[in-house]
Amino acid sequence: MDLVKSFFIALSVYTALPVPQFQWDERPMAFSLCFLPFAGVCVGALTAAWFALASALNFSDFLTAAGAVAAGVLLTGGIHMDGWCDTWDALGSHQPPERCLEIMSDSRSGAFAVIGCCLWVLLDFALYAELMRRGVQNAACFIFVLSRSVCAFLSVTLKGAKKGGMLAAFAAPARRRAVQGASCLWGALAAAGLALYGTALVWASVALVLTTAWYVRLTRRRFGGITGDTSGFFIQMSELAMLAGLVLSAR
After folding, report:
1. What pLDDT was estimated at residue 104?
2. Integer-rounded Cα radius of gyration of the chain
3. Measured on CA atoms in the order 63, 125, 112, 168, is the torsion positive or negative?
């Protein structure tokens, strides 16, 4: 029963799906991060369904790309985009780590958040449109699981920048080895799916590894650790990088 609660707690936080609500007790919270990658499965399934519908209705590449961008944001309720924007605000301030954490906690959106949001939407749309042109758009459905698998792994491995917040609520009671093992399993399954698309797995993996290394260094230097906002930033950034890798794989 605790695993069932863990599953629904993860879906209630990381997606906008209408699921049963449970109390955030310590026992179910211990395994909730194990199911963060399943939110990626949901996003990938919705994106694949959209691609199939768009193909059946003979939509243009531009409309199909726009729908793919919207699918990921709408299904997650924008939770990771919120982290992306908050992190952009903090990075744009060029302040010390303590002040950066305060800026990320501010509910107001600054100029850098708006700029970062616009850049992400523009790049995500352009990369999807390019994948459509090259006919390998379905490969993108697996990257949502990979990004969240690495994010879950890092959440229980790297140092947190603060004791409170969303990340601490999930990471503090988490069974570290269980989350790390589940993350590796989810990641392996997603990688197996990407392997069906030729060199897509190689290019996406290189992009993910480079992004992860950069993210680890960035958070240590600029924030003194990771937070829920930087985790959302990582998911959004790694997905952009992997989409770029998929484009290069199909050149």
Report:
1. 87
2. 18
3. positive
Strand partners, 226: 160
pLDDT at 191: 96
The model's pTM = 0.95
Chain Cα centroid distance, residue 235: 3
The answer to whether 226 and 157 are in contact (CB under 8 A) is no
CB 84 within 8 A of CB 51: no
Distance (Å, whole) CA 84 – CA 246: 22
**Placement of tokens 């990340």 in the chain:** 167
- State the sign of the Cα–Cα–Cα–Cα dihedral 75, 218, 108, 166: positive
- DSSP per residue over 161-214, as a string? S-SSSHHHHHHTT--HHHHHHHHHHHHHHHHHHHGGGTTHHHHHHHHHHHHHHH
pLDDT at 153: 97
Residues of the chain with pLDDT under 70: 1
DSSP at 159: P
Residue 169 near residue 26, CB atoms below 8 Å: no
- Residue 163, token pair as written in the block: 């004791």
Query: What is the pLDDT, as a whole number, of residue 24?
Result: 83
Give the tens place of pLDDT for each residue, 185-194: 999 999 999 9
How far apart (Å, rounded) are the C-alpha atoms in residues 101 and 89? 10
d(CA 229, CA 222): 13
With beta carbons less than 8 A apart as the criterion, state whether 227 and 160 touch: yes
d(Cα 71, Cα 16) in Å, to the nearest integer? 11
